[in-house]
Amino acid sequence: MLEVKSVTKKFGGVIANQDVSFTIEENQIVGLIGPNGAGKSTLFNMISSIFPPTTGEIFFLGTRIDQMPAFKVAPLGISRTFQNLQVFKNMTLIENVMVGQHIQTKTSILGAALLLPSSRKEEKVMYEEAMKYLQFVGLDSLYNHKAGSLALGKLRLLELARALATKPKLLLLDEIAAGLNHKETQEMSELIKKVRDTGVTVFVVEHDMDLVMSICDKIIVLDQGMKIAEGTPKEIQTNEAVITAYLGT
Ligand code: ADP
Ligand code: MG
C-alpha cells in the first residue's frame, strides 16, 4: 500500500530523515517509534505531502506522491492527525467532523473551512454521516457542544473522527494517545483496532510502548533520522540496536 524508498530530509544542516526505506501492507497496524527528534513527525509530514523529501520517493497504491501537493494526496486516501491538536475550538463537534468531509469531497481547503455544501440535500447527507463518525468514537451525545469545551481525551477522539470523515485508506496517527490517562489510552487502543477492522490501514507514532506492542502487526524504529530496526513487536523488544537507542548506552 505504501512504499517509502530511500527518503532523506534535510532542514539546513539538520538531517531529520536519512535514507529511510520500508513498506506498509494493507489492513495492518504499523507502529513508528523512536526517541524524541528521531524524525517520526517529519516522515509523516512527507507521507501526507506537507513537504517533499530532499531525496527519495514515496508511492501510495502505486502512485508516486512525494512531489504532489497535500490537497491532491488527501483525496487519494491518506488522512492524518497531528501531534499538536488541530481542532477548531469555536466550532461544534459535528461541524469539526464536517470540515473533514469537505476536505474529502471538495479538495478545497477554503471551501472546507467555510463549510459550503453545494445543496441542502448534500448538507443533510453529510450531517448524518458526520454523526456516524462521532458515534464511532463515542462522542455523538456531545455533537452540539463547542470543541473548546472538551478535555484533551475527547479532543483526541474528535481529531480521530474528523480524520476518518475523509474516508482514508491509510490513516496516520501522530501521538494520538499523548497526555491520555491509562483508561483513555486503553480505549484508544481498542478504537484503533476497530478502525483497522473497518478496512483502514493505520500507521501510528506512539510513545506508549504498551499500546504499540499490543496493537501493532509491525514496528519500524527510527533513531537520529535512520531506520535502525523493523519487525514484529516481539522482535523489536529484544533487538539490541533498539535497546541501545532507548537506554542511550
Ligand atoms: P520526532 O517526531 O521523532 O520527535 P521530528 O520529525 O519532529 O522528530 O524532528 C526531527 C528533527 O528534524 C529534529 O531535529 C527537528 O528539530 C527537525 N525538524 C523537524 N521539522 C523541522 C522543520 N520544519 N524545520 C527545521 N527543522 C525541523
Ligand atoms: Mg513528533
Number of helices: 10
What binds here, in terms of ligands, is: adenosine-5'-diphosphate, magnesium ion
Shape: globular
| Biggest β-sheet strands, sense, barrel | 6 strands, mixed
- Structural class of the secondary structure composition? alpha/beta
InterPro entries: AAA+_ATPase (IPR003593), ABC_AA/LPS_Transport (IPR051120), ABC_transporter-like_ATP-bd (IPR003439), BCA_ABC_TP_C (IPR032823), P-loop_NTPase (IPR027417)
Keywords: ATP-binding, Nucleotide-binding, Transport
Domain ABC transporter: 2-249
Protein name: Branched-chain amino acid transport system ATP-binding protein
Give a short synopsis of this structure.
This protein has 249 residues and is of the alpha/beta class. It is built from 10 helices and 10 strands.
Structural overview:
The chain contains ten helices and ten strands. The protein is of the alpha/beta class and 249 residues long. The chain folds into two domains: 1-68 and 169-249, Rossmann fold (3-Layer(aba) Sandwich); 86-168, 3-Layer(aba) Sandwich (Rossmann fold), CATH 3.40.50.300. The strands form two sheets. Strands 6-7-8-3-9-10 form a six-stranded mixed sheet, with helices on both faces. The protein has a four-stranded antiparallel sheet with strand order 2-1-4-5, with helices on one face. Strand 9 and strand 10 form a beta hairpin. Helix 3 (93-106) runs parallel beside helix 6. The protein starts with a strand and ends with a helix. 39% of the residues are buried. Residues 11, 14, 16, 34, 36-42 line the site of adenosine-5'-diphosphate.
